[in-house]
Amino acid sequence: LSTATLTYDSLRFGEIEDFPETSEPVWILGKQFSALTEKDEILADVTSRLWFTYRKNFQPIGGTGPTSDTGWGCMLRCGQMILGQALICRHLGRDWRWSPGQRQRAEYINILNAFIDKKDSYYSIHQIAQMGVGEGKSIGQWYGPNTVAQVLKKLAVFDSWSRLAVHVAMDNTVVIEEIITVSIMPNFVHQGFFCQTEDDFDDWCAQIRKVSNCRGLPMFELVDSQPSHLITADVLNLTPDFSDSDRLERFFDSEDEEFEILSL
């Protein structure tokens, strides 16, 4: 399992002494800390997050495909990390911490197994890459964030243990009625956000509206029902192939339509 999943402890993050001290609250994945009084808690929280990175020498994808995702798997690994965090919250809770040198809970091992680099793991790079083939992406082709989100949404259907519904908001708009329709309460992801219960979702909506009213242009819009100008079809927005140099240009271009989409 250590060959498939790492934590920041591998980088000796916990030994960094120059962690900034500030009176401002520190937020990590929805949880608030104090940098002045909770430094150890902050470090423990960060080292407990799942970290997926480029790997090599795994089983050939599709039997004859690549054995490494270096250069093309970055967005796929990001999607794995986001969904992995959702599964941690789902099965272990947001306050769970990874304890080095101790026997880990069975739920944690099951989550790692879901992402290990082999063809029969629910959320392996093999499954993500092959699911993308059916949507027009060849194995080894770079994915955008929306493509990864849509593929993970389809793969989550087969994960009967987690019973997780994934909703992908399009056009920078979160439509409440869509989430209520497609989600099997109480456990769902919509996105970069995980809600354990319907009350969690209601609280999330209230917090998003509060933040939107206090600031300027919001990152995304929250509406009760779908505006008439939005497309209703639930389809993958696929992007054309482009070179490495074009990728960087598109990644940093805020006008690019794919990167304006709020995905997983």
Automatic annotation (TrEMBL):
Family, per entry: Belongs to the peptidase C54 family.
Domain of life: Eukaryota
Lineage: Eukaryota, Metazoa, Chordata, Craniata, Vertebrata
InterPro entries: ATG4_LIR (IPR046793), Papain-like_cys_pep_sf (IPR038765), Peptidase_C54 (IPR005078), Peptidase_C54_cat (IPR046792)
Compartments where found: Cytoplasm, Cytosol; Cytoplasmic vesicle, Autophagosome; Endoplasmic reticulum; Mitochondrion
EC number: 3.4.22.-
Function summary: Cysteine protease that plays a key role in autophagy by mediating both proteolytic activation and delipidation of ATG8 family proteins.
Organism: Sinocyclocheilus rhinocerous
GO terms for cellular component: autophagosome; cytoplasmic vesicle; cytosol; endoplasmic reticulum; mitochondrion
One MF annotation (Gene Ontology) recorded for this entry: cysteine-type endopeptidase activity
Enzymatic reactions: [protein]-C-terminal L-amino acid-glycyl-phosphatidylethanolamide + H2O = [protein]-C-terminal L-amino acid-glycine + a 1,2-diacyl-sn-glycero-3-phosphoethanolamine; [protein]-C-terminal L-amino acid-glycyl-phosphatidylserine + H2O = [protein]-C-terminal L-amino acid-glycine + a 1,2-diacyl-sn-glycero-3-phospho-L-serine
Record-given protein name: Cysteine protease
Keywords assigned by UniProt, alphabetized: Autophagy, Cytoplasm, Cytoplasmic vesicle, Endoplasmic reticulum, Hydrolase, Mitochondrion, Protease, Protein transport, Thiol protease, Transport, Ubl conjugation pathway
Keyword Protease among record annotations: yes
UniProt domain Peptidase C54 catalytic: residue ranges: 40-180
Gene Ontology BP, a term: piecemeal microautophagy of the nucleus
